[in-house]
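Encode chain A's predicted structure.
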Amino acid sequence: MINYTQSGLSTNNLLLRVFGGDARLDGGVRFSDSVTEGPARLSLQGSISAEALRQSTELPSLTGLATRMEGNASYAATLGLRQGVPEITVISNLQGMALDFPAPLRKPAEASWPMRFDSVLLPAGTAKGSAMLEQLQLKLAQVLSVSYVRDVSTAKPTVVRGQIQIGQSAGWKDAPDNTVVLQVKQPNLNADEWQTLLASFTEEESGLRVGNAGRSSLNAYVPNKIDISSQELVWSGRTYNQLQVNADKQARVWRIQARANEFQGSAEYRPAADGSGARVSAHLNYLTIPPAVLEDVESAMSESPKDMPALDLIIDNLELRGVALGKAEIEGFARTSTNGSREWVLGKLNLTMPEASLQSKGQWGGSGKGAAKRSQLEFVLQIQDSGQLLDRLGFKGAIKNGKGRMVGQVGWQGSPFSPDY
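Encoded structure for chain A:
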């Protein structure tokens, strides 16, 4: 039974079915802050199942998450009103429910992970002017913390700032206004698994036919600043060691600073806009591509998707297959050729070292879909010391001294990084 008056509502031991589980509702809600009599908060206790969440239409944002959850768990929740704004708290140890997300968010059903969600109105004076601020906060064990501050002064809440923390959070500062920051500090991180997960949510969003207004609203919750620290990170099948990444989005452009044992430098990513394709510009102090991963790099470029960005790279010190090749300058873009195959157009593929300099341009592609890809280059090779050049390339003592200049065209089966000689 629910008792309803002008000042509020109350109930006692009301039994319900909520998201596939039994629940009990007690307490009440005061409709105005001036009311002093009667219970101030509703209390709900029960259990919830992953299957019920998957079938739920009331919480569409949880439907996609529930596809990676199994089992059920008990919970306790409270609801109150302050200045007309709902304040909600939900707590659970999630025991009995398995989470199948990428590490560190993978949890067996029997494990107990304390989870708490709070939605509270911040004290007056926290915001500038007459703005009324609400904080949404989720904490999951010691592995995840999510916090958003929203301006709820108007009918449509707007995000003021946000912070998503994965892994160890000690020493991290709060996000400034107009910023949503993603902070990751994890010994081992598989970016490929996270990319697959995020792509699946994007597809689900498309399937729900989210309108432009809804998509724009969701974009306000997407990070525009990223800080990642990982001893070992896997991306595109390749492992990077001792990785540090800092990225900021300014307008539509991402500016990135990164370093690892395998590379160090800065990059800028411009998405496609106004008829121009996406573009990545990078200046690396060094880049090491060992033989074990060269095939993966070539495969990724060979199977480049249609939205693959154009590349403009400067590498001060390039090491390929264990050979130091000096400074490299690479400009190119992928396109679909007239025969339907994907090919790379290389506007510049230059190498500069003390012994010689190479200037070249050309393309890398196949004669048709499924055909083996072939490199074709026009080149100018200026040699200062042919003996030292051959020593660098692994042919020690083949000749001594020697200068010269070579101009011509060359082609071979394979990528520009694997000349067939």
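Confidence is low (pLDDT under 50) at residues 206-210.
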